[in-house]
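Pasting as-is:
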Amino acid sequence: MEKAGIENAGNENAAIESDAPVILTRAGLDELVEVLISSGYRVIGPTVRDNAIVLEELLSGDQLPSGWGVDSGPGSYRLRRRSDAAVFGHSAGSQSWKEFLHPPRQPLWSMDGDQFVASAPVPVRYAFLGVRACDLAAISKLGVVLGGGARPDGAFARRRAGLLVIAAGCTEPGGVCFCASMGTGPAPGPGYDLSLTERIDASGHRFLVDVGTEAGARIIGLLAHRVATESEVTDAREAVGAAAQRMGRQMPITDIRALLQQSRESPLWEDVAQRCLTCGNCTMVCPTCFCTTTEDLTDLTGEQVERSERWASCFETDFSYLHGGSVRTSGASRYRQWITHKLGTWHDQFGSSGCVGCGRCIAWCPVGIDITAEITTLADQRDDLEAGVDVLGSLGAPTEDPR
């Protein structure tokens, strides 16, 4: 879009109240992508590739997944055609926005002969389009983990500093979603610049837009829009609120942190280990897992060396390696470590749970292990023990010490 076109679009609508929801049409969403690109942002959003909804750089609104939905379950993810042209009528795919703020592999430095070269990150201004409430919460949690403390991750901090977030309120949760029981959705919480709620009915295809920041207000001021009516606001709010009652999963209502502390010797860990492949898929798709390791690559001459940082998983045997060997050698101990940290000791480190209820770990587990089902089993075991029921008989006694 030419600069003159942007100015003309903004003249009529530039002055808006920061707390007044407005309406964008479907064409206005495409215009939003154009405006973001012309404003210097690299726009990342959902699109269809390889029979899945993926996150990629968008060059136009035509790339958005109009008319596509998703059916998901434990170990299952299938793309399907919708009966309408909804853009955000799908649940999360395997990727999360973490991939762009905390990339899977980052070069740190290299040596060419005796010359040391420090890697210089390329400056980038991201605009994330279509961030669900669970992922918005995940970005916030990563901000505490990687962007806080005495030694923040500089690369993460720089990427996040220039970030513009356009959230999307969920009106159709997926089969593995449980954000409502984690308190992270389906309505986007704090942290967005703009938030869109998609509605399609007899009145047309439109998006209710909530403005969260001055940066968001400036972007809206460049687009053709109108103030939302009271009925449009009510309709959008009710649609998102109703989604909370249609979650595919639910975490049990209990003190999960205390439950995990009490369940260290539970027979559940060995029961899970008989199913778990320790492949690490759950940690790779999780939007808050942040562990890394370093990796050195050397050419055959020994003259060129590169050190990189890459994602790591607590399901790797070498992850807990100390002098003399690995601390957690069994699958049972590694699964227990992951779930106990995610839902329990994360509170001690960072003041909240590390889970946002997106359900990716359920959908992308090859054997369909369900984190909500396992916590429910632990809660049931605790209740049975208090009632004097034989818990070991129901699951089978552990055959080895899960350490």
